[in-house]
Each structure stands twice: as C-alpha cells, then as structure tokens.
Amino acid sequence: MALKKKPVTGMKDILPGEMEIRDYVLNIIKDTYRGYGFSAIETPCVEHIENLTSKQGGDNEKLIFKILKRGEKLNVEAAQTEADVVDGGLRYDLTLPLSRYYANNSANLSAPFKALQVGSVWRADRPQKGRFRQFVQCDIDILGDATNLAEIEEILALTKALKRICPDKAYTVRVNDRAILKGMADYSGFPENETDKVFIILDKMDKIGLDGVREELLAEGYAPEAVEKYTGLLAEIQNDAAGVRALGEKLSGVMDPAKAENLATIMETVKAVADIEFGLEFDPTLVRGMGYYTGTIFEVSMEGFGGSVAGGGRYDKLIGKFTGVDTPACGFSIGFERIITILMDSGFKVPEAAGKKAFLYEKGLSGEQFRAVLKKAQEERANGTRVAVAQMNKNKKFQKEQLAKDGYEEIVEFYKDSLK
Amino acid sequence: MALKKKPVTGMKDILPGEMEIRDYVLNIIKDTYRGYGFSAIETPCVEHIENLTSKQGGDNEKLIFKILKRGEKLNVEAAQTEADVVDGGLRYDLTLPLSRYYANNSANLSAPFKALQVGSVWRADRPQKGRFRQFVQCDIDILGDATNLAEIEEILALTKALKRICPDKAYTVRVNDRAILKGMADYSGFPENETDKVFIILDKMDKIGLDGVREELLAEGYAPEAVEKYTGLLAEIQNDAAGVRALGEKLSGVMDPAKAENLATIMETVKAVADIEFGLEFDPTLVRGMGYYTGTIFEVSMEGFGGSVAGGGRYDKLIGKFTGVDTPACGFSIGFERIITILMDSGFKVPEAAGKKAFLYEKGLSGEQFRAVLKKAQEERANGTRVAVAQMNKNKKFQKEQLAKDGYEEIVEFYKDSLK
Fold this sequence. Notes:
Two copies of one chain form a homodimer. By secondary structure, chain A is α/β, with parallel strands linked by helices.
C-alpha cells in the first residue's frame, strides 16, 4: 500500500542544504550563549493540557495541537466535548514549559538561573508562505535576577550571536520600558484604563507614521489635547540614553524616575562593554504584543530586512502565576526561522573547515583496489575532510552534478586500470 | 492558578548537567557522520495517522500518541471511534518518516542518499526506570546502494563515533545475515514456514545458552534430529570471516554462497581499512527483532555493559512498501539514550576547551566599577572562556556551591573597595 508522501499540512521536510545552515546557525547560537554562562535545558514537547490552556499564552492557546487520551481513559463514544478525550498538547512556545520546569526543578538550579532553550513548537495556524505549523524557537531567559544585569547580558549575548552568524550585516537594538509607555500615556492625559488600546495604535507607528497615529487616536475619540500632547512628546524625544533621562524628568509627576534611569543605564553599559558594533536606540513607540511584559522590552532589526529578527523583555509576574512564587525574569528570543529564511534567500553557504571531497570508483574493482579507495578516504577523513565514497552510476555526469549540489565540488575518480 | 509542576507521565525535564553531555555526544556523532558523507535531514514530528498505522512499525503502532483533528473537521459528540477524531500522530521511529521523506524528495537528493537523522520519537509505553515516552533516536541510513559499501561505511562511521565518545572503552560489532539464519534452519531440517519461531528461541542464546536453546526447541516439538543438527552447527562455527566462508560452503545446498561471501567481504574490508581498534565477530545467533530486515544485520556491544549500544541492518523491501518503488536500504542506529545513561552513571564530564569562570560582584558597585567587571568578562569570553557574571547573593557560600555544581569551579570575586 502506497502511503501519503507529503508531510502533514503546514509542516515541512528539511532538505540537506537547509539543514546544514540550520545546524551551523544553531551551533553558533548555542556556543555564544554558553560563553555568556547560559545552560541548555530541555522540556518535553508534550505538556499537560491544563497548563497549555491556562490563558498565559494569549491567542496561541487557540492553536494547540491536542493529544488524545490513551487506553482505558479514552471513551470516544461517550465523549461530549474535546476535554473528555484530550489530556495533553504540543507546546506552542518555550516560555510556558520553562515556567513549569523552573517550578519543578528550581532546587537543583543555580540562582539566578540562566536558561538556554532551543526546540520545536507547534501552532495550528492557517498555513502561509514562510509560516509553518512546526518551527524552532531559540530563547534565553534569566530567572531570579531583578537587576538590569539580566537585560545587559542578554543584549550582549544576543547581538554577539547575530554578529557571528552574519558578520557583514548591521543590527539595531531598540529598547523601551512598559513603565515609560504607560508614563507617556498618563502624562498626555489618556484615561488610565484605556492605555492598552492607545498602545495598539502606537504599535503601528512604523507602518502609518506619526500622522497616522494621531489620526487613529482622534478617530478613536480621544481628547484632542491628549492626542496633541502625546504626539508632540513622541516627536521631540531623542533616541539615546540622554533622551531617556530627559523624558524621565518630564514624566516625573506620573512615573518613578528610576524607571528611566534604569533604561538609560542599560543602554550606556551595553555600549561601554560591547566588543562588536551595533545600533542601540531608545524607541518610545516600541510596544511588543505579549501582555506578560512588565518592564524593559527590546527588539532587534537587521539591515535590509523589514520586521525584527529578535525580541524580548522582562516579565516579572508570569512565573509567579504558574508557581505561586513571584520570580523576576527576563527573556530574549531569536527569530530562528526568520534568520534561516534570510540566509537561504541570500544564497548563504556554510563555511567548511577542511573541505568536502567525493570519491567515485568504477564498478568491478578487485577487493584489494576497493580497500585502497576506502583507505584513502579514511586518511582524508582523519584530516578533517568530509569524504563521500560512491560507486559510479551509469549516468556519471548527473551523479557529479548532484554531488556538486551537495557541496562535493572536488571529485576524485578511481578506475580499475589506474589503481594498482 | 498554580499549574501542574511535573512533566507529563513518562517524559522528563532535562537538567543542565545532562544537557551538556547530550549536546557533546550529539555533536561528536553528527561531526563524525558528516565526515563520512552523511547529510542531516529532518522530518516533522507529526505524521499522517494513516502512515503511522500502516503495519510497518510492528508493536510500536500500538503506542502512538494520536493528535486530535481541529476546527470543523472535529465533531466529538458524533464520533464513534478513535479514527473519527484523529488525523495525525507523533512519530514512533525515524525509519517510517524517512521512507515518506525519500518518496517525497528523492528528485532533490543524491543517489545513493546518505541520511543522518537525530530526533525525538514518542511511544506511550508503560513507564519504567530509564525508559521514557519521549526519547532521541540517532540514525544513519543509506538509500539506493545495493552494494556492501553501505554496510562497510556504516560500520566504519558508527564505530568511529562511539570511539570518539568513549575513547577508553572497547566495542565489539557482531554481524550476521538473515539469509544465513534461514540457511542454517533449512539445512538442519526445520519446517520452512516455522523459521521465525526458531529464530525467536535462538535469539535467547545470550540468556539461556546453547543447552537452553536445545531444550526450548525440543519442548516446542521440533524433530530431535533437526535440533541436534542445528545446535551442532551453531557449536562448531568460527566467528571470523573464514568461519563465515566455511559455513557458506556447508550451506551451499540450501543457500546462495554469495551471501556468505558478501558477509565475509564486509568483515575483511572493515578490518583492513578501520583506523581504530574494535572487535568484529560473526555471530550466527544474532537475530534482531524487526521483521523488515532482509540481509546483513549488526549489533554493537560496549565493554562492561550488557545489551547493545547500537544496531541495524539491511532492509531492501521496506521503502518500496511505502513508495511503490523498491529501493535498497541499510541503516544503523545508535542507542543514544543508553549511551547517555552509561555516561551519566559513570560520572562523565564534558571536556571544556577553554574553561569556565564565574564572576561574582558585591552589591552596590558604582556604574564605572560595574562596567569594569563586565569588560573583564567580555575579554575572557573573547578568548573562549565561558564566563557567568552574577551579583553576590546573601548566602555566598551556597551560591558558590551551586556554581561549582554547574562546572564553574574557578570563581573570581569583585568588591567595591578593591575595584578602582
């Protein structure tokens, strides 16, 4: 019986060429993060359904791949609702499993705990170009550190990893703080319980510009004085540490000035100790979607590509919701699949340490000749060269083209008559 | 609301110490296999339920984690059977997805295709010590090569990987061929359609010995002459290439002598070209469980540990069952979880290239002092040292003990008064 050849809807088979790039990028990321003292951990891909549907994952909870109960616990005929037949689901991110992991294992973990997670997550999203239902997330999180050392080290580590992946690309890190976002809205006179709606409009700044934001706020019915004060404030802000401090003074009536000082310190310290070049800007329009952020937020863009390649922030209240014990936390996530797409589209080739060679031998070698070919391959391998050995196919030209496509451009041929 | 802290039944959280060993071992395996010309590939963790339940996976099919249909396709209330509510499942091995992958992508793959797969698989087995419901498999497979180059290269690559992981352990590769198994049974006079039952008894040889095998065969009701001829044959066989050839001559009435010659050649060639030491033995009692093997079979044991740490064989008929096109195939699987357990139990430590250091700084440093500590960390990191920076906790002794447990044995302390 022939089976279905295509992968399940929205998921993909990864070909050797892409896989080589993925492994290369992952190794750089892991190696860099380990250099900054992060420890790799892993959680199961399957989580308790109760944990996944606990309303911490926002809209992602609608997209869970659910897992059927097994054995005696399953009674399909009597079942009325999904809940009757399901006891698990595939994780939709790495943050929720990390919270459970921390609650389960904190007695055996350093404090603060610096976690590095690389793993697949699943979301039953509507399939579309470049978006898959199984994809890799790549997160660092520091749990148990309330100081801005967490933000500083995460920005340093992440920019270093990105720079090692694409040394000739420029990156810009944009930073903001949820408290500053709120302070600006309060200062301008928006109603306190409506600031989330204001931020949703502000978040469109990069698409609709300041005038567009003004128009949408007015159309939403907010007081024209508030809208003018807000857009005026946004227009005048400088994007460096001094700008953050100046804004902090202006907002001192509605916001603790320590918030601005904290962000300015993060910016100054990162710039002072970074050993690579990248942009670092205060962006008062940076919002970040997830509701769980409580302080600093950041996003990284890459020269020549719209959207972001990394993002994160501080979420001091999330872990407590899972564990019952408040734990300060700050995380940064690399858009792994986005970076792979960028590299694939730009024809990126993984640098090979010691080259690749293909050995093709004619059919019908004597035992001694065959062993001579393999011995030669073994010698090259011992020197670090990747050697593929194959018998010549009838269509040698096609075989060589295929090998070249796999990066085996140097091809050595062995014939009965020329081997002693 | 506090959530469930434990992982789902039978699956586990992986702590930093184990994770370090896992990543280390995986990197060696991947690097070694790439040196032998294998290309890493990946398939989705979710497969079509029809593919998973196609009776190619033997008993493993009973253990599938099944995935619920979504959206309009799901109607729990009207459902009568499992099939009504399920459309996918988590893969239970990497061989079935590989067959689908090959059918889907062979136009874009080299011929022969040398696949390297590392990935989690899931089986809803009864949980027991050291057996988990999610575990990593680590396979190489050569598709489209009918020659014994496939067997030879796989044995060379796998033993090299094992030797790099544990250089001071001795390994023994035991080989056999399904045709020789069958030839010995036919030669001894067992009924032709009962050979599978004979092999199940033979497979117990390492536990019950030759006498035990004799007794069980007799108890099963086989003719005493057949049993005597069979056990006599088993007792006299030499375990080297010459022994294989001698057996081939003896079985020439019931088996094509090319089968024995092929196995003898594999053994001789591997020994002639291997650049590391390991045992290589013909084992006429080696059976291997999976029914899909068609030719050579192999198993690897490690000095001081019962059971095997790797196994595999040729399965020339399996891919054709999925694709409709017969494709010769030979695979070798490393018992990854078994090796990790052995390393963990023996207190194995991952060798660090350039060391690990922890920097602890006193609370309340000036901005300048703080930057000085971070700059020093950046310098050490640039030299390849892994540096964890943390503020001193109140209980510094405990903090240092935790760091030491994570491998940060060298700890540098920074104080307000001593930093300029």
